[in-house]
């Protein structure tokens, strides 16, 4: 998931505070690292110097400077022009963006009580600050003047797009509303910002609160040695040496559900996982959801839309909710049929073992693994020894080098966002520096769940020279016991390539204005998902899939099993994903929110009313569905499958040439998809690359649904 590469949303996400003390800026200005140019290599944030107390004064000063810059634009006596209004606005807020990127990054990967309290304190002044700009009537008048008189200016394609996006941003931000409605909008924006922040903090607390403590060795039966070792290390760190601790972080809970022979323990950890945010405690998210979808709907109606999905989708490739549901329903039916076939295999395995029960949710992964072994003679634990983390990373670097001629070199003695992080310089094939890439692999209590790609500096131009981006990819893999290698599952190897694809999108970016750097939400996953197609290509496996002990290349027999079994399990994988996509949409097409909305009943009706198998929970129930409730993929979780139509069709472009590293196809993909930001509409960009619109057939074939 691409989480923070776009600057536009940062202020809203972070929010602000209603009051400040005198001296907040002056007291620490002398030592605050944000108030001077970074002197670090490549201009990366000096993580080792930044302290929590530096953020607030830097935010305050950043907003103060931003206001002064906007005032200068508004009070310019000259006629509004593209340069003195649109470009000046696009380049404003440099300090604010600088601190926001550093703070957002650290709040995501190394949060603590102090940072979370600061987020809450800051959450209502940045929201106000953002509204003060987007609802400034004099500023909008100048923007509107340039927009309506653009024929007077000799604008190139990129400049026209910046002007269009700037004007549209003001309109969608409420600039055309009357004073009373703007006041309502301000309150709603503040409320939404706080609710999204609270939801994320609650989810992290719920995830960290649960521990499955095992004190009998026999209860570890079936579990891989690497998982047992990681659980022992987690127990030792928690002061429970001699026991084993399993958590709700995916690298712990998912393999436990897949391999643990103890059914009662599988049930316990499964129920804890799907109940996060729904435990009627201080971190319960049901009321947060109700208030959040209500506030979003009110905002949409205030801006002239019938529901929040309509407001969001207007900016996406999908354009309207009918197109989204059409795609999801087209996939839902064959996926559900495939899932029923898989359930039959699972129940057959239960009977084979003498079980006298029907599979439940906590049985699916366990018995599916047995069914896969029976069908394909492939045990995932056969694969893990060949997927050592650093080797997988090098495999991603290898693919990028073969496609684009770029190289990655490890950097030493660099400031790191966390001691476990790695950092590399990316160079183009001509030796010029494309940017810096951080990779942060391991889970920890202060890190948000999932995986994402973000940034500490976006690519731009300054004084005619390209400013290279600073990109970060973040994962949540289990940290191995000391002295042991980090061995990944096949799915985790895919995640490395996925987020690396986002990183390439950031590193290859070549735009002159911040306002055209972003692409539609349902296009943004194309660069990441297309990279996943190379993970298990035999030619690529032979390069990076080497046994961590012997160095032996993964045997062809295992590769053949991987290829043959690749589509098995897509019923479950597709159904659980589409279920969450439908749930996200169902919340945001509501035209009215009942005062007595029962979150559990609403979600159960939405899922099981469509025929979802009781053994399959949506990938995310609402109470821990951060993609939609924290604002990144609101009415947009469908984007992964929408982009998958594109990425499967895009990989076909390589396969059709007979060369999965075809340099001409790669060059076109870089030129038309990875580099131009949002200068063109998403489908225009895709057609420029492919020469035609995509077909859904490659996706259905890739998932074994056709």
TrEMBL record:
UniProt-listed Pfam families: Peptidase_M3
Necessary cofactors: Zn(2+)
CDD domains: M3A_DCP
Cross-referenced InterPro entries: M3A_DCP, MetalloPept_cat_dom_sf, Neurolysin/TOP_dom2, Neurolysin/TOP_N, Pept_M3A_M3B, Pept_M3A_M3B_dom
Chain ranges of the Peptidase M3A/M3B catalytic domain: 256-704
GO terms for cellular component: cytosol
Phylogenetic placement of the source organism: Bacteria, Pseudomonadati, Bacteroidota, Bacteroidia, Bacteroidales
Family under the similarity heading: Belongs to the peptidase M3 family.
Originating species: Parabacteroides acidifaciens
Coiled-coil intervals, chain numbering: none
Keyword check for S-adenosyl-L-methionine: no
Alphabetic keyword roster: Hydrolase, Metal-binding, Metalloprotease, Protease, Zinc
PANTHER family from the UniProt entry: DIPEPTIDYL CARBOXYPEPTIDASE
GO molecular function per UniProt: carboxypeptidase activity; metal ion binding; metalloendopeptidase activity
Domain of life: Bacteria
Protein name: M3 family metallopeptidase
Metal-binding among keywords: yes
Cofactor: how and how many bound: Binds 1 zinc ion.
GO annotation terms (biological process): proteolysis
